[in-house]
Specification:
This protein is mostly beta strands and 786 residues long. Helices cover 4% and strands 60% of the residues.
Length: 786
């Protein structure tokens, strides 16, 4: 028995030995095998392993397939590959209460190991009144390369003409999530809970930074969040429970950035650029020479890079962030009194986030201010204090009439501090050596070539800045409702919700500038000699917003027939102020749901969800709606076949007045203050989603299935870049599937499946590769189950 379990525990799981959550099910199973003295013959209802009745399923197999078209898009959407897999594994052990040695019940299941983008292991074990244990481990491989994201869409008229084939914000990260929860004495008056959660993200990614031009950065993400929770529940009275929880959140971020090796992926012809003398330089990802990006003439007739162009020799940034956030929570639920239900919760959290090693370095040229190099260090810290409280009361006045009131208070404040120190060197070109000020080499009248080479836009040579920030919100929300059931066929409710929010935000910046010639006079120094000047409160602002919100709530439910249920509810919302431009001053929300079962084997259901929002302020003009219509039908006339059908229609629209900058200026546009132009940001999209899944069993041992899913989008939006396509706003995505399984022996079943993916966008793909792809994959497996 033990040897059989050792074989069935997948090697793919054992390779995750660094994650004890994955190993734990295997260790428990081996322990169960050790205590099993004898294995009784297997039956159709499972096998008897000593004191345990066991049910086990193992599905081993793999994928075989091919992809044509855009592989990056396929990996972004699906990310399957050919190869062997542990498609699924499950084991259920059950003993009569008190008969098990370590546990009475144990259930574990796994799927996806061997190469699928998502894999997971789950374990649940319990021992009567003593304990309940739950543990999960999940790993998601997240690849994203939608090449329109952050793509500069360089025009072909640029010289040189460089097209970016991948998203400059591509990432290929892995998220690992572990959860363990243990409840001791679950059936007792007092029970204890212990929980641990770990969430880790790591892996490579790309990003960009604007320092004269858009530099391509390569980064490594390393973030982790560990959560520890201790809780106790006390049933102080019948139908009354009091709970206390203490939680500790520990956060760590060691993400770093550096100038990317442009030979990676297919970011276009970004490599090979050199200055005279063979000095390599990066010109970034933006090549729009008519608009001066990275400059009007990046490459000279000699083939060398123009030394007066924006460019990078190097860039680096790292942030060592650490956070610790403890939270205490006290909650209570009670239905002790016959006609009163009561619930309450209060929590308090006060924690710190510290950045102790934030550094940024740059070398290259920013032509606008002649920056040739800078070093920035910016340690800082922030404190977050959060207090929340919830109170809910339901009073059953009569058997038909109830009064419901819920109140929520949510307040937080985040004071922060940062100390930024910047040292900058200047030069006229990429080939000029940046000068460090020295009175011996830069004597009065400070015109020597060895002086710092500023221009009128240059910043100070040295800057020390202190930032004091504050963000806070105090929100109260109260909802009162009356619910009345006229009879068993009809009922409804009416209510009122009032919300009040006060938001405060402020910034105080104190600066100390050290300015070397020749920038002294333009910066307010009395002479052109080196000087130090302050900018106390130079960037001070304080913003306060007070918002009052009112909502009228109403709903009705109908049961005209015993097999038909209809629900409808609505909300009419008004706010006297907003904090963001796209926050609504007026909102209407309508929801309707219906379920009809004309026969036991037929079920129809539908849902409608409509949200209308607007902010009619003259300088905003925001309109928005989200409308969703769903329909589903399920048919299960017999064990031989079943069918489910789904359809959804989604209509999303928004428009808002905006100001933007465009080069060159589009004819007919209206100015909203130089250099800004006025326009309407429009987003309009309709989507259709449909699917069906048919399962048919022609004979007892054979099961077939056929499915089809289609997602279609048709929309429009404001595109400020004339090269930009509509992309996913004009797209279709087809996903037909089919499978057949044959139980050819008592415990063995063979299964074959087929998946097809077809993604197509509109004909205009802009100056990027087409994102369309087609993929066929077959999945073959052998299932052992008893």
């Amino acid at each position: 028995m033990r040897r059989m379990l050792e074989k069935l525990i997948p090697a793919a799981i054992q390779r995750q030995s660094s994650r004890y959550v994955v190993l734990f099910p295997a260790l428990v199973l081996l322990a169960a095998a050790q205590i099993t003295v004898a294995q009784e013959p297997e039956t159709g209802n499972g096998a008897q392993w000593g004191a345990y009745t066991a049910h086990q399923t193992v599905e081993l197999g793999g994928h075989v397939g091919d992809v044509s078209g855009s592989v990056p898009m396929f990996d972004t959407f699906v990310n399957w590959s050919s190869g062997p897999r542990l498609l699924s594994y499950s084991l259920d052990l059950h003993a009569q209460p008190g008969n098990g040695m370590i546990f009475d019940d144990l259930t574990t299941s796994s799927f996806g190991y061997g190469g699928d983008p998502n894999d997971m292991t789950m374990l649940r074990a319990s021992k009567g009144k003593w304990y309940t244990l739950n543990a999960t481990f999940r790993r998601d491989r997240n690849f994203f390369d939608y090449d329109l994201l952050a793509n500069p869409l360089n025009p072909t008229a640029s010289s040189p003409s460089v097209q970016i084939g991948d998203s400059p914000h591509l990432f290929n990260t892995t998220r690992k999530m572990s959860d363990i929860s243990l409840t001791l004495l679950p059936l007792s008056v007092v029970k204890f809970r212990l929980e641990y959660t770990r969430n880790v993200n790591d892996g490579p990614f790309f990003s960009t930074i604007h320092e004269g031009t858009e530099g391509l950065l390569a980064g490594t993400m390393r973030t982790g969040l560990d959560t520890y929770r201790i809780g106790v529940d006390y049933k102080v009275l019948p139908r009354t429970n009091i709970s206390y929880d203490q939680t500790f959140n520990v956060f760590k971020d060691d993400t770093n950035y550096s100038l990317a090796n442009t030979n990676m992926y297919s970011f276009g012809n970004l490599s090979g650029y050199q200055l005279a003398g063979g000095i390599p330089v990066s010109l970034g990802v933006s090549f729009n020479t008519p608009a001066g990006q990275p400059c009007a003439t990046p490459v000279l007739g000699t083939g060398a890079v123009n030394p007066a162009c924006n460019g990078y020799f190097g860039y680096g940034r790292n942030t060592g962030a650490r956070g610790f956030f403890p939270t205490e929570q006290l909650s209570m639920q009670s239905s002790y009194f016959k006609r009163v239900d009561f619930s309450a919760r209060a929590s308090y959290s006060a924690g710190n986030s510290d950045i102790t090693s934030a550094n940024e370095t740059f070398s290259g040229l920013i032509t606008r201010n002649r920056n040739r190099a800078f070093v920035v260090s910016e340690p800082g810290s922030a404190e977050k204090v959060t207090t929340t409280a919830d109170l809910g009361v339901t009073v059953h006045i009569t058997d038909h009439l109830s009064f419901v009131d819920t109140f929520r208070w949510d307040a937080f404040r985040i004071p922060g501090f940062a100390n930024q120190n910047t040292s900058t060197l200047f030069g006229a070109t990429l080939l000029s050596n940046p000068n460090i000020f020295n009175p011996a080499t830069c004597p009065p009248p400070f015109t020597a070539a060895t002086c710092p080479q500023h221009n009128a836009s240059s910043n100070s040579d040295l800057q020390s800045s202190q930032f004091f920030t504050f963000t806070g919100q105090n929100e109260q929300l109260n909802t009162t409702q009356l619910q009345y059931d006229f009879n068993s066929r009809v009922g409804g409710d009416i209510g009122y919700r009032y919300g009040h929010r006060q938001i405060n935000a402020s910034l105080l910046e104190n600066d100390l500038f050290t300015i070397y010639p020749t920038l002294a006079l333009p910066r307010g120094c009395p002479t052109s000699a080196p000087c130090t000047t302050t900018g106390a409160g130079a960037a001070t602002f304080a913003d306060t917003a007070e918002i009052n919100e009112h909502s009228l709530l109403a709903g009705v439910w109908l049961r005209p027939m015993s097999n038909l249920r209809i629900n409808f509810d609505t909300e009419f919302f008004y706010a006297d102020n907003v904090y963001t431009r796209i926050s609504p001053r007026h909102l209407q929300h309508y929801r309707a749901r219906a379920k009809y079962q004309p026969r036991k084997w037929i079920t129809f259901s539908s849902a409608i969800n409509i949200i209308e929002q607007r902010n009619n302020d003259l300088d905003v003009g925001h309109l928005q709606h989200d409308r969703t219509y769903n329909f589903a039908a399920i048919f299960v006339p017999s064990e031989k076949w079943s069918l489910d059908v789904n359809y959804s229609y989604i209509d999303t629209f928004s428009q808002t007045n905006i100001c933007f900058v465009a080069t060159p200026t589009t004819p007919g546009t209206i100015s909203c203050g130089t250099p800004y132009l006025s326009g309407i940001s429009l987003y309009d999209n309709t989507g259709n989603f449909g699917s069906f899944n048919l399962i048919y069993k022609p004979i007892r041992r054979i099961t077939t299935s056929l499915g089809y899913t289609i997602t279609s989008n048709d929309g429009n939006t404001l595109l400020l870049n004339p090269n930009a396509p509509l992309g996913p706003l004009e797209s279709t995505y087809y996903q037909p599937t089919a499978s057949v399984s044959w139980q050819f022996a008592k415990y063995l079943t063979g299964k074959a499946g087929w998946n097809y993916w077809d993604y197509t966008e509109g004909a205009n793909t802009a100056p990027t590769a087409a994102r369309n792809f087609h993929a066929n994959f077959g999945t073959f497996s052998l299932i052992y189950a008893f």
